[in-house]
Structures are given as C-alpha cells and as structure tokens.
Structure to design on (397 residues):
C-alpha cells in the first residue's frame, strides 16, 4: 500500500473544518429461516421490522422464518416486510441477519461484499468458514462481540439472563416429574423445609438463577473460585447468601443436601469439570442437575449433551438436563431480546450512512466486526485458526 507524502501546505495551520453532514443510507435486510439444529429464534420481531420499514428501509423475510418464535408471516407482512419462498433471494440481500452462523453452503449464496450480522460461536467454527467469507469479501459482525457503552456485551448478557432464569424454571418442572421426580414444589411453603439449590459459578447465568430461586423461596448456595465475582453477585442480589470458593469437602456437603444443582461455569477453552462422578453418586435420589455450561463441555463429569426433544437422562439416580442453547427453548423471549439489542444498531448504521461510517462513530459496534471486506480484523480468531489479519483501527479510522 502506498502513502502520499504530506506537502508543506498540509502541515501549515489550517482553517477549522466543520464535519460534513452524514448522508443517511437505506438498508435492504434479508432474514432467512434458521436451519441449524434446535435453533428456534429470529433476529427481528414484527415490531422491530415496523420500526425499520417506517424509516424507509426494506426487510425481506423467508416464509416461515418466525413460526418457531410464534410470529406469523402475516404479522411480518403487516409490519411492512416482504415475504418470499425464495431462499436464494433472501441470501442475496446486501445485509443479512441471522441468529446462528452461516453454513458453507449458505455463504456460497451470498453476493460479494455483503454485510452479515449473526452469532459467531468461535468454538464451533472451522478455518474453512472464515476462508469462505474472505473469498466473498464479506464484512461480518458477531452479536457476542458487540460492546455497550459500559464495556459489557449486551447480547451475551441478555441471553445469559434467560439461561439463568430458565435453568431454575426447568428444574422446577423436573422436580415434579411423575416418573422419577420427587414430587416437590420448588420454593418455601409454611411448615415445609425450603428447596436447597447449589449454583456452581458466579457470572450472569448464576446471578439470574439465584434471583429466580430466591424469589421462589429456595435456600441458595453459590460456589466460585473468584472472590470478586462472588462479592459482585451478592451486591447485585442486594442480600447476603451463602457463598464459597470451590473446596471439594464443602461442595460435596452442599451437593449431598441439595435438591437442585445448576452448572454455570465458564472457561477460556473448555469449561472446567467442578463436580466429579463420585460427588454426583452422593447426591439425593431424584435430585436435579441443570448443566447450563454444557455449551462449553459441562462442569459435571456425568453431563452428556441432550436435545430439546429428549432433554433429560438419569445417571446415578440423578436427573440430568444438559441441553445446549437454553434460550432457544424460550424462543419468543430470546427473539425479543436479540431484536431489542440489534434494532438500534441497524437504525444507527442507516443514520450514519452505512457500516463504514457507523463503525467509525461507534467503538462498541466496531468491536463486533471480525471481517471487514474480507480482511480478518479479530486477533483472537487469527491466533486460534492461524489466519493472517489486520488491526481494524488501521483500516477504519
């Protein structure tokens, strides 16, 4: 790349230059039907589509894309979207919104230089995925990398809230299971000992699991190796609960007494196994394990991946629920959550005159970009897959 040298005149003090008013751009967004196994969510709700179309943008949705989130084609049509049976036509839109990452076959359907906004799920990707996107000179943003003004990751946090709350509701259902459950009501009834819940981990999933369990009247014990996380959890809950670092003896003692155990740990590559099979053997007959960490391997040694269709299995007389992607079980709530996060960004992209201007103006959105016109801009992806890349700040400034 060649650079033009500065002239003497350019280095002299200049008159103040006012920013030229940004030109608004019209978006043409495609939303295909999700084909990934167990994926039931959609990126935009009819209300979000209405918000976009009322600003003059076009939204093309594949027929039936919202059905698994309880949104009909008519609702989208009434909101101003165009409905089509032609999958290829949807993928050829200049901007594509998708919950799950694209497959290689779907990437082939894209037009060159398209903009793709979806989840990335780096641990399930292969090198070929990035090479295919690079070949098409795609600009790609990942939901989970987009940062808020406070430095948090809104999409990750929101879906973790759903997973945490959902884990307790799932456990409550399993406790009354007629075949193997204990026939217990989750909570605290006058004269009856409260439900005992053990949560392993102290992040957002754990916080919302604890909130829900406490709200139902359960006794909650939280274990994590980070004192900082445990302190933050207590502050966020605004009450004192039992917290402890992970000591095998105290964890085993808590597991022996508990009715429900929630796995909510995270690791850099794979989630650490915090509960051995021997510990599970000591748990009560009919106790429930909900391993939310199964997405990254699971923190119970006895955990095995299950599906939404067949979500549980029994091992050592303990009911295990190990379905990855718990938010997809609550597809409408999760869709609303994703839609509420992404819609303001879409409107901002249009207001700023396109993705190039938008990522110049918004550092949090820029953080979500991992490919820019086919150039890899995320250092961790480059190191993970041994791919060449460039710092986005050297390309867009």
């Amino acid at each position: 790349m060649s650079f033009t040298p500065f002239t003497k005149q350019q280095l002299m003090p200049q008159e103040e230059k006012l920013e030229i008013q940004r030109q608004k751009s019209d978006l043409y967004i495609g939303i295909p039907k999700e084909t990934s196994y167990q994926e039931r969510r959609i990126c935009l709700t009819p209300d979000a589509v209405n918000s976009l179309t009322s600003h003059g943008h076009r939204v093309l949705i594949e027929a039936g894309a919202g059905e698994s989130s309880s949104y009909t084609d008519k609702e989208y049509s009434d909101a101003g979207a165009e409905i089509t049976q032609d999958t290829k036509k949807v993928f050829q839109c200049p901007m594509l919104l998708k919950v799950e990452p694209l497959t290689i076959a779907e990437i082939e359907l894209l037009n060159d230089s398209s903009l793709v906004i979806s989840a990335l799920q780096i641990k399930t990707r292969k090198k070929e995925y990035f090479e295919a996107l690079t070949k098409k000179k795609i600009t790609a943003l990942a939901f989970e990398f987009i940062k808020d003004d406070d430095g948090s990751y809104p999409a990750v946090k929101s879906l973790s809230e759903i997973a945490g709350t959902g884990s307790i509701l799932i456990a409550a259902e399993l406790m009354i299971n007629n075949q193997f459950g204990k026939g217990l009501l989750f909570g605290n009834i006058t004269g009856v000992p409260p439900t005992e819940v053990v949560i392993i981990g102290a992040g957002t999933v754990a916080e919302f699991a604890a909130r829900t369990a406490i709200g139902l009247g359960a006794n909650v014990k939280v274990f994590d190796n980070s004192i900082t996380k445990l302190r933050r959890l207590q502050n966020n809950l605004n009450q004192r609960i039992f917290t402890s670092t992970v000591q095998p003896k105290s964890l085993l003692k808590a597991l022996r007494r508990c009715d429900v155990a929630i796995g909510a740990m995270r690791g850099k590559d794979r989630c650490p196994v915090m509960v051995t099979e021997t510990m599970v053997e000591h748990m009560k007959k009919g106790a429930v394990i909900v391993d939310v960490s199964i997405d990254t391997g699971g923190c119970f040694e006895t955990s095995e991946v299950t599906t939404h269709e067949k979500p549980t299995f029994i091992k050592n007389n303990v009911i295990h629920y190990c379905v990855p992607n718990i938010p997809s079980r609550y597809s409408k709530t999760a869709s609303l959550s994703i839609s509420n996060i992404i819609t303001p960004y879409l409107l901002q992209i249009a207001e700023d005159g396109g993705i190039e201007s938008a990522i110049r103006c918004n550092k949090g959105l820029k953080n979500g970009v991992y490919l820019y016109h086919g150039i890899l801009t995320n250092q961790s992806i480059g190191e993970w897959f041994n791919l060449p890349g460039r710092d986005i700040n050297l390309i867009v400034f």
Notes: The mean pLDDT is 90. Residues 50 and 321 are 38 Å apart (CA to CA). The first helix runs from residue 8 to 11. The radius of gyration is 24 Å.
